[in-house]
Each structure stands twice: as structure tokens, then as C-alpha cells.
């Protein structure tokens, strides 16, 4: 059995890693393409500490995305 990744509920706060490596809190809004993109990327975390723990991994993902856009 594979555990489903944590997902924020609508109108609740979650933490994410920004492309510069900082972390910030957002509210998950229904219909927000930004929130859905962040969720799809695996960049939604229940706590600030959980987001901070993934900064190196997320920075690698951001670099992969940037590389694909430049090509």
C-alpha cells in the first residue's frame, strides 16, 4: 500500500519552497492554477519545517524546469 502524499484542503494554509530557496506560507484556493501547479510539483507541505527540509530537492526541480524552458 502506497501512502498518498499530503494535500492541503481548500482555504487552508500550506508551506512551499520558492525558486530562491526561501519558504513561504500560502492559502490553498479552489481554482488557483498556482496552487494546483505547486501541488502537482510536490511542493506543498503541512509545516514550515517540512518545507525547509526539502529545499535542496526542490531547488534541483526548479533548475530542471528552468533548463527545459531554455531549450
Can you walk through the features of this model?
- There is one protein chain.
- With 71 residues, the chain is α+β, with helices and mostly antiparallel strands.
- Helix content is 44%, strand content 14%.
- The chain has three helices and two strands; from the N terminus they run ββααα.
- It has helices spanning 33-41, 48-53, 55-70, and strands spanning 13-17, 23-27.
- A two-stranded antiparallel ribbon has the order 1-2.
- It is globular and about 35 Å long.
- The model has no long low-confidence stretch (mean pLDDT 92).
Q: How many helical stretches?
A: 3
pLDDT averaged residue by residue: 92
Structural class: alpha+beta
Instruction: Say how many strands there are.
Output: 2
Contiguous low-pLDDT stretches (5 residues minimum) are none
Measured by DSSP, the beta-strand proportion falls in: 5-15%
Radius of gyration: 12 Å
Strand order of the largest sheet: 1-2
State the end-to-end distance: 38 Å
Largest beta sheet, briefly?
Answer: 2 strands, antiparallel
Helix content: 40-55%
Inertia-based shape: globular
